[in-house]
Structures are given as structure tokens and as C-alpha cells.
Write a structure and sequence with these properties.
With about 220 residues, the chain is of the alpha/beta class. It has helices spanning about 20-35, 45-50, 55-60, 65-85, 90-100, 115-120, 145-155, 170-175, 190-195, 205-215; strands at about 10, 20, 85, 105-110, 130-135, 160-165, 180-185, 200-205. About 45% of the residues are buried.
């Protein structure tokens, strides 16, 4: 045990935070755009879409083809999920430490529930997180705070004693809007410089730094 936990409740983003789904997501975006529009996705631009819902991403940029793009994305994503989803070493141990210290832990993600649950299974975390708030659970999504607040509510806690851990600027903005501490990690989709400009409560570079941010 590192020490006493700083929070009674910690909610995590999923993609790029608990599971390395970045290669899978970028490949899925590229497949969708190529199969529907005949163009490849720009990797840097596609990384900036991570953390938003598929409908939010595609309906703004390609409204007439949004449904076809979503279908193509999901078909590819599901077919290659186990192959391209990678574990972040040490995450399971950190979640276990938090739970053993009495911290309520959950996930708030913009993924559909079926995809979120499949991702957690793929990296061996499905038995460690009691609450998952997915896309279907709220009408609005990050950077709106609704998913985070719902996760905290389902964990029977208050935002004033909670932190949200994520790898994207929308995660930081959602945490701030929820009046939760924003713990940003730089091993996912977001650039460290952009995350720093969003003014998170703390910016962490690796798992030991994240552990230090969550324990006193």
C-alpha cells in the first residue's frame, strides 16, 4: 500500500487510460473512412476524436454518411478488438490497491456498453470495476459532466470527494465541470502540452506518478 487514499471515489476513463485501445481506435477510424468515403483518416486528427461518441464525431464532420461510418467503425472494431487492444502493465494492481483501501472505483466512457465491457474483458479488468457508465446511460457526453456525475452517484459518493482520471482534454473539462479533481495521464490519446493547457489538478507521466496522485 502506498499510503492513505486521497479520494473516497475515483472514476476512470477507459480508452487510453485503463486500456491501450489507441491502435484499435485509429485503425477503426481509418477503416470506416476508407470503406465509406474512400479516404484515409489523418492519425493526428483521429487521435483528437478519442473521448467523444462516434455519433458526435461523425455527425459533425460527415452528417450524411454518419450512420454508415458508425456501422463500419463498429464492425471493424469488434472484429479486431482482442487482436489490437493492449494492456497497460500495473493498472490491475492499482485498481486492486484502491479497492482494498476502501476507494469506490468506476468507469465513465463514451463507448457503447457492449464495447466497454468487451474492452474491460480483453485487458482483464472486468472483475475489478463495479460500476461502468457508458454512452447509453446519459443523453449528453464528455466534456459535459453528466457521465461522471452519474458514475459518482451510482457509487454512492459525492463529487467533492472524487477524482476523474483520463487521457484527453475532454476528460479534464468534464471533471472540472463536475467539480471533481481532474487527474490527467499522458500515455493515451492526448498530447501532454494540450493536457497541461487544460489545467488539470495533476498531470501524470506514468503509473507510479498516477499512484502518487491517488495516495498520500
Amino acid at each position: 500500500m502506498t499510503g492513505r487514499p486521497r479520494y473516497g471515489c475515483v472514476v476512470f476513463d477507459l480508452d487510453g487510460t485503463l486500456a491501450n485501445t489507441i491502435p484499435l481506435i485509429l485503425a477503426s477510424y481509418d477503416h470506416a473512412l476508407w470503406s465509406v468515403l474512400g479516404t484515409h483518416a489523418d492519425p493526428a486528427e483521429a487521435r483528437s476524436w478519442i473521448g467523444q461518441t462516434l455519433y458526435g464525431t461523425f455527425s459533425v464532420r460527415y452528417p450524411e454518411q454518419a450512420e454508415a461510418l458508425i456501422t463500419a467503425y463498429l464492425d471493424y472494431n469488434l472484429a479486431h478488438l482482442d487482436e489490437l487492444t493492449l494492456r497497460y502493465e500495473g493498472v490491475a494492481g492499482l485498481l486492486t490497491e484502491l479497492a482494498e483501501a476502501g476507494v469506490a472505483i468506476g468507469v465513465a466512457t463514451s463507448k457503447r456498453r457492449s464495447s466497454a465491457e468487451a474492452t474491460l474483458r480483453a485487458v482483464g479488468l472486468d472483475g475489478l470495476i463495479p460500476v461502468t457508465v457508458a454512452m447509453e446511460d446519459t443523453l449528453v457526453h464528455k466534456p459535459d459532466p453528466a457521465p461522471l456525475l452519474l458514475a459518482v452517484e451510482r457509487l454512492s459518493h459525492d463529487a467533492s470527494d472524487a477524482a476523474y482520471v483520463g487521457d484527453a482534454v475532454v476528460d479534464v473539462l468534464a471533471a472540472q465541470a463536475a467539480a471533481m479533481d481532474a487527474v490527467a495521464v499522458i500515455w493515451g490519446a492526448g498530447l501532454g502540452s494540450e493536457l497541461e493547457l487544460a489545467s488539470p489538478t495533476v498531470l501524470t507521466s506514468d503509473l507510479p506518478a498516477l499512484r502518487s496522485a491517488l495516495f498520500e
